[in-house]
Write a structure and sequence with these properties.
This protein is α/β, with parallel strands linked by helices. The protein has helices spanning about 30-50, 70-75, 80-100, 115-120, 150-160, 160-170, 175-180, 190-205, 210-220, 225-240, 245-255; strands spanning about 5-10, 15-20, 55-60, 105-110, 115, 125-130, 135, 185-190. Helix content is about 50%, strand content about 15%. Helix 2 (about 70-75) runs antiparallel to helix 3 (about 80-100), helix 5 (about 150-160) crosses helix 6 (about 160-170) and helix 9 (about 210-220) runs antiparallel to helix 10. It folds into two domains: about 5-205, 2-enoyl-CoA Hydratase, Chain A, domain 1 (Alpha-Beta Complex); about 210-255, Orthogonal Bundle (Lyase 2-enoyl-coa Hydratase, Chain  A, domain 2), CATH 1.10.12. The strands form two sheets. A six-stranded mixed β-sheet has the order 1-2-3-4-6-8, sandwiched between helices. It has a two-stranded parallel ribbon with strand order 5-7. The two termini are about 35 Å apart.
Length: about 270
């Protein structure tokens, strides 16, 4: 197996980003953050020129991501605060860039996740999880507070009370509990997870990318806008999409009663 902290593979317009330190529970250490930042730059560039049409996030081994490198925290000793101050910005920058991708992002959670792994997993537009994918906040158990967008994602998806329950508690929440909280879209047996996630991501990669980008903009910012503001953005987005070749193809395909053949266009 490759020694890289992650694997980035391509199939047509679909990129699959796989965390690849299974022996270390795919922790988000400094080496992983640096490598992921480079991969994220590639993803952003390919999204801009239309070569990236969907992204699938997953991990090798039985754990999706345990979060931060606790052994590294121990090695930092009395400089823990300084080490965190230096290590967090690169992770936060790549999270911002991944979350802003104008293409559908799917997470396939192959196992437990905690800490910063929560923020990475839940930045996806659609989260599929194995029934082994327990979720544990973990921060308060070692006297720390959330990072990597974990508090934002949990609050946005599950609400303030559930977010605090998860982040205050030392216990792991089951995949079925996370499904009920709205953190996961679907829970599957482990042997069915990757085939389902790959099928979904492949389908999205063949879709109308400009339409998906507009949908992401509308939905992700809806809670911060008034109805009037949202209606104005819906108007502008519909007009912009309506000028695309994909819209013309979609309308023709609907009238012809056939599957559309979208080619994608810039968002």
């Amino acid at each position: 197996m490759s020694s890289s902290p992650f694997l980035l593979t391509w199939q047509a317009g679909l990129a699959t980003l796989t965390l690849n330190q299974p022996a270390r529970a795919n922790v988000l250490d400094d080496a992983c953050a640096q490598a992921l930042a480079e991969a994220t730059h590639t993803l952003v560039e390919r999204a801009r020129d239309g070569r990236l049409r969907a992204l699938l996030l997953t991990a090798s081994g039985p754990v999706f991501c345990a979060g931060g490198d606790i052994q590294g925290f121990v090695r930092a000793g009395s400089d823990l605060s300084g080490a965190l101050d230096r290590g967090i910005p690169p992770l936060h920058e790549l999270i911002l860039q991944l979350a802003a991708l104008p293409v559908p992002v799917v997470s396939a959670l192959n196992g437990p996740l905690g800490g910063g792994g929560i923020g990475l997993a839940l930045l996806a537009d659609i989260v599929l999880a194995a029934d082994t994918a327990k979720l544990r906040g973990g921060y308060a158990s070692i006297g720390l507070s959330p990072d990597v967008g974990a508090s934002w994602a949990l609050t946005r998806l599950a609400g303030p009370m559930r977010a605090k329950q998860i982040l205050f508690s030392p216990r792991a929440f089951s995949a079925q509990e996370c499904l009920a909280f709205g953190l996961y879209a679907e829970v599957l047996p482990p042997d069915q997870l990757m085939s389902a996630a790959l099928a979904l991501a492949t389908e999205l990669a063949q879709g109308a990318t400009g339409s998906f980008a507009q949908i992401k903009r509308l939905v992700d910012g809806a809670a911060q806008r008034t109805l009037k503001e949202q209606l104005a953005l819906e108007h502008a987005g519909m007009v912009r999409c309506g000028a695309s070749a994909d819209a013309a193809e979609g309308v023709r395909a609907f009238l012809d009663k056939r599957a559309p053949r979208f080619k994608g266009h810039a968002a």
